[in-house]
Amino acid sequence: MPPTADEGVLNATFCATLVDEWVRSGVTDAVVAPGSRSTPLALALAARPELAVQVHHDERAAGFVALGLGMATGRPAVVLTTSGTAAVELHPAVVEAHQAGVPLVVATADRPPELHDVGAPQTVDQTHLFGRAVRWFAEPGPPAPAAASTWRSLASRSVVEAVDGVGGPGPVHLNLAFREPLLGRAAPLPAGRGEGEPWHVGGGTRTTVDRRGLEGLTAVLDGARGVIVAGAGCGPVDDVVALADAAGWPILADARSGCRSAGRPAILHADALLRCERFAEDVVPEVVLRLGAPPASKVLAGWLAASGARQVAVDADGRWFDPDRTATHVVRADPGSVLRALARSFDGGWVGDWGGRWAAAEASASAAVDAVLAGHDEPTEPGVARTLCRSLPGHASLVVSSSMPIRDVEWFGGPTAVRVLANRGANGIDGVVSTAVGVALAARWAGGPTVALVGDVAFLHDSNALLGLAARGVDLTIVVVDNDGGGIFSFLPQAEALDTERFEQLFGTPHGVDPLAVAAAHGIDGTTVTAAPELAGVLRGALDRGGVHVVRVVTDRAANVAVHREIHDAVAAALASSHPGSDPNRAGDGV
Amino acid sequence: MPPTADEGVLNATFCATLVDEWVRSGVTDAVVAPGSRSTPLALALAARPELAVQVHHDERAAGFVALGLGMATGRPAVVLTTSGTAAVELHPAVVEAHQAGVPLVVATADRPPELHDVGAPQTVDQTHLFGRAVRWFAEPGPPAPAAASTWRSLASRSVVEAVDGVGGPGPVHLNLAFREPLLGRAAPLPAGRGEGEPWHVGGGTRTTVDRRGLEGLTAVLDGARGVIVAGAGCGPVDDVVALADAAGWPILADARSGCRSAGRPAILHADALLRCERFAEDVVPEVVLRLGAPPASKVLAGWLAASGARQVAVDADGRWFDPDRTATHVVRADPGSVLRALARSFDGGWVGDWGGRWAAAEASASAAVDAVLAGHDEPTEPGVARTLCRSLPGHASLVVSSSMPIRDVEWFGGPTAVRVLANRGANGIDGVVSTAVGVALAARWAGGPTVALVGDVAFLHDSNALLGLAARGVDLTIVVVDNDGGGIFSFLPQAEALDTERFEQLFGTPHGVDPLAVAAAHGIDGTTVTAAPELAGVLRGALDRGGVHVVRVVTDRAANVAVHREIHDAVAAALASSHPGSDPNRAGDGV
Q1: Residues of A in contact with B522 (CB under 8 A)
Q2: Among A84, A296, A511, whose Cβ lies nearest the Cβ of B428?
């Protein structure tokens, strides 16, 4: 482009170049919050038919929508805000993307350097605004002709850093200063690579174990009595299953592992099983292979920590998942290639009834859970999780809130064909519905309907996810388990130690707000489910109709604790024949 | 306290000590978001009858409630969150407190060091989470007996730093790690100072001008044709008025200056007056005394910048308010003492019709605004601002949103007896309703009802301010000027440069949500005002009934631009006799 002194032209040309390079780099989605300083980039994004642009009034929610898009597609969405607290509002989503390893390109508009720190309106210090929670931060300053040859690299690199950054996928932050005028017509862009290629191509690499590493792991694992704990990021299901078969080990499969498809051999009720002390003692492993992120179950974590087993933790992005310091080997490599290498090098696997004992216990537990839930006509929280996992079609995505829903799905969901997603980087209850909106938007590129499972507090926390939602053209059903407050606290020591008034004030926190009234204010229809058997049909109806629906399932916090206990008792009773004297561990009532 | 190895006892004792010291330091309010890791401090706060504790489900809103409390009282409120993104959610309110100079004590619960960076749940890097946007950051680590002698200092200093920190009042951040168990009974606290005194007493100082400084300012200002621009933080009204009288200068009074009480001589329509080129040229000053934060008017700022006048900027907290680089003197001192010193040292003041010309123009402008608004039976946005300023009782507080409301109040509000507050640190539209909730809560300590003036986008952005609001026992009326989208953009070049569809997509952003439906979902009643003359009565009724109300005033974005122009035309016409040939400057249509 020719040198020019017209800031409007410079802004427009710079932004059109960024967007062109993002499109070449495979970006398909942008989320834009209204603002003035961000005008040049907002217009450039909206001008490209290759991009789907969502406009969102609340930047916090916009950040989580972009997070959901990145989580579902593996491609970063671009989220754009104007300057000031609008930019700050993205911080929660950035932290979640950072810790969960979700690609995200954050673009914040800024005022130019000469307007900083002099009382100019809507001007805050946005340099390194998100601290260490980004893979990459860049601040190119106001567009300058002399730097035009670097613009394509800037945008292209932002995608490479978000997808293939050191430490794996995550958020990047471009802080973009614009001088007035903010409007202008773009000059011809700096030339890009031929054939529409992006300026930089990243990735195309994979870290695996070398010969020494493989020998070390094989020496520890081969022939030992082991378990695989498969979390999110565990690697390809076929590889996990193949190694489990080769070794004769059970797969303790987290809901997000992808290893819960019905028919595959996996342990889906580890939490309930391991609450039975006798069983837990009888199945102590010698080795543990931990793949990806850890499950939510404290009971499982405690059992692993107490096992004395040698533990191998594998994570593709090199995250150090080891709160109990029990990992003997930390393998920062692609789990799939590690699993395949191990399967090839294993000699014979462990012989005996080890796998069979786990499988038998799993079958007993699963039947016991079903039996308990069949006895409840009123909706129960474990029952809602199980119904969703069982009844949703295989092309659906299930976005599960932190707090109780992720636990109910992990512990009681059972087999499921759906893809389970959750914000488990920082485990916040914020932004869950917006994340689901992002996942639902991503379904336009591939996939079926999206269902979110959230509690009433998480739903209300993120009620601004509903802004504009009815018009976004998505298929999203939001199931709100409504126990009028914070249900998880009923499982914590606070519930027994405090008097009811204090507990309800600080932890129970009833609010009395009907989620369906909030939904209705946003033009979204809703249904209340009051009997357990209705839920599957209501869900089916919502999915058949398409569009956005809220399904409210009314539960009770105290009754929820009781049904959890009832299930644990039933699982213990079911194990009694094979593990006589088993009682559910009362100390394990918690979450 | 005796050394103990019981973490529950340590946590409880540490927290009870912090709270005791906060109470001694004058803290009266806390805002607590539900969480588990924060349990020790939540319980300690709730245990003290001297403290009013608000529980809020949304940390972002909780932060702004605490901001409003600090803004209204000058005392920091304590806002407490659990760990993880819950803590991150406070960032917008912290940035606003930082830039607006509002005292705030942020307490975030954290997991202990040994649970960091190992995949433990709800654990993020909270060290210096808010970057440079705090006056003080402290991270004492998990409570340890050996450090017990420092606990009182920690809490007491947090208040001193928030109220009297270097750079003036602002936010402080205590990141507090707790080990399990989180419950325990407090041991005897470390002894405090006698007589219930706080550990540290800060403040009690004031920076004023010395002899050399006074001589320099007097040489510049005395006898010159000057104007005073009085913003928030301008100093005591009596001192401003006394200097204006001594010098014969007009006071161009921002709505937040406190200098707009009816009957006092001040220029309240500077923006409209200075849009008339002839008038603006006729009243160019030789000197300008800028007190506190600048008004929102770009027209006023541009006129000052072009004036060539010598300009003296005074700010008590040393903020450098000078976006146009026109300040010749930057006086970082208490405005009141500067004003009194100047008034004593001034020789005679400027003689002539200078003040009279301003006063006459002001009277003409005010009458013209009244006449235009009297001609509109339908509600107008300038009319809403004027009605609020005129009709609210003197003991009320008016919390005004950024974007158009602050401009409408500044430009068209006219005389008012109420205290006008706004988030003008970063000028965000986020958290405005929550800030008003905080101001309304503060009224329990002193003051009358609170009224908020917000647009529909700001209202919806902060709809979670309504969580629990009906039960907070406050008198708060929220006036929502509802033009179904972002009204300010209709005044920007984007409105004329873009086609309607693109403009509405990115800037107009209609949402179709009725604020009253959102309010109703939270059990809050509302009224729609469809005729301008109804508003005063509806307001009076709401204030008489007490409690929380939402008043929706339906306006139209295009009509709003037209009525602004109509007012500017009328003011120009009114000035025509004294300033023949005056036309409103069409280039000054913007905001």
Answers
A1: 513
A2: A84
CB contact (8 A) between residue B489 and residue A36 = yes
Which residues 6+ apart lie within 8 Å of A500 measured at CB? none
Sheet with A29-32, edge to edge strand ranges: A52-55, A29-32, A77-81, A104-110, A171-177, A136-138
CB A63 within 8 A of CB A109: no
**Nearest alpha-carbon partner for B65 in B74, B542, B55, B42:** B55
Q: Is A512–B523 a contact, with Cβ atoms under 8 angstroms apart?
A: yes
Residues A437-455 have pLDDT tens digits of 999 999 987 779 999 999 9
Output the 3-class SS for B562-587: HHHHHHHHHHHHHHCCCCCCCCECHH
Residues of B in contact with A46 (CB under 8 A): 502, 505-506
Task: Using an 8 Å CB-CB cutoff, list chain A residues near B325.
Answer: 118
ipTM field = 0.97
Q: Do residue B293 and residue A323 have CB atoms under 8 angstroms apart? A: no
- DSSP for A160-178, please give it: HHHHH-TTSS-EEEEEEE-
Within 8 A of A186 by CB-CB distance, chain B residues are: none
In one-letter notation, the amino acid at residue B128 is: H
Of A95, A468, A486, the CB nearest to B85: A95
Which among A450, A530, A428, A441 has a CA at the least distance from the CA of B57? A428
Residue B588 reports pLDDT greater than 60: no
For residue B465, give the DSSP letter.
Answer: G
Helix (H, G, I), strand (E, B) or coil at A419: strand
User: How far is the C-alpha of A538 from the C-alpha of A171, rounded, in Å?
Assistant: 37
Task: List, for residues A332-383, the tens digit of each pLDDT value.
Answer: 999 999 999 999 999 876 668 899 999 999 999 999 999 999 999 999 999 9
How far apart are the CA of B6 and the nearest CA of chain A, in angstroms? Answer: 16
The closest of A359, A382, A584, A588 to A483, measured between CA atoms, is: A382
Separation between Cα atoms, residue B448 and residue A225, nearest integer Å: 72
Tell me the chain A residues in contact with residue B296 when contact means C-beta distances shorter than 8 Å. Answer: 121
Token pair, residue A248, equals 């004769």
Q: Which of B320, B461, B514 sits opposite A58 (nearest CB)?
A: B461
Three-state DSSP state, A469: helix
Residue A352, phi-psi category: left (phi > 0), alpha (psi -120 to 50), beta (remainder):
left
CB atoms within 10 A of CB B261: 15
Q: pLDDT tens for residues B451-496?
A: 999 999 999 999 999 999 999 999 999 999 999 999 999 999 999 9
For an interface test with A, which of B57, B126, B297 has the most A Cβ atoms less than 10 Å from its Cβ?
Answer: B57
B506 interaction partners in chain A (CB closer than 8 Å):
32, 34, 39, 42-43, 46, 55
Structure tokens at A277: 């002390």
Cα–Cα distance, A342 to A218 (Å, whole number):
7
Of A57, A124, A502, the CB nearest to B509: A57
Domains of chain A: 7-190 (3.40.50.970), 211-359 (3.40.50.1220), 381-554 (3.40.50.970)
Produce one character per residue of A430-463: b if its CB has 16 or more CB atoms within 10 Å, e if not. bbbbbbbbbbbbbbeeebbbbbbbbbbbbbbbbb
pLDDT band at B509 (very low <50, low <70, confident <90, very high): very high
Torsion sign over Cα B128, B130, B132, B137: negative
- Write out residues in chain A with pLDDT < 70, as ranges: 1-4, 262, 349-351, 580-589
The whole-angstrom separation of Cα A156 and Cα A26 is: 10
C-alpha atoms less than 13 angstroms from C-alpha of B586 in its C-beta half-sphere: 0
Distance from C-alpha of A311 to C-alpha of A325, rounded to nearest angstrom: 10
